């Protein structure tokens, strides 16, 4: 019987297993910071979170240098920061623009919506990370998608002509940073309405893709202790707002 069943299945495409949705979480902030969002879904949840996280302190682009030395600190070496995409631990003092330095990576590329380095989206620590100068240059303003060739010194990241794929350990981080930006900046504060979409090659339009891939990465790479600490430092010391998708990764599916 087994052989005959196998024969029938030959040549048939088996369904691809869907990503398991993130489990519902609870945090110490649910009864206070998130009290007006808990229990909501869809556009109602997105609108509530926008209101909550839009109450924030803003810093200058120059101040981002020192802020990243605190937010991205290597937990095993307080003199270093951990670099996005490559995973390298590098001296805090090596910030700049030369080969071997680290600089300020806008995960939501600043050209996607043309907000540049202006105080607000251009200086929001929830999507700014320390990154190797050369790896940052290779990423450029590419959208996020799967596939490509290995990025030199990129820790397993991949790149092709129209997209960038972070190393596995950073996939969820990137997804949650992008989706934070889409909720925080909705066009109501003088900046572009940032939204994820299903395209690559978005150029200067206020979109970044691909949403389906970002959702998969959110499931594949749950929030790490590094990411959670980073969220807390930003909340406690700098902006006094949180990335809700680090606290509640299941809210990605609840909205999108």
Automatic annotation (TrEMBL):
Instruction: Tell me which UniProt keywords the record has, alphabetically.
Output: Hydrolase, Nuclease, Signal
Q: Which organism is it from?
A: Kitasatospora indigofera
What superkingdom does the record give? Bacteria
Organism lineage: Bacteria, Bacillati, Actinomycetota, Actinomycetes, Kitasatosporales
A Pfam family (short name) is Endonuclease_1
Q: Where is the signal peptide?
A: 1-24
Gene Ontology MF, one: hydrolase activity
UniProt protein name: Ribonuclease
Question: Does Magnesium show up as a keyword for this record?
Answer: no
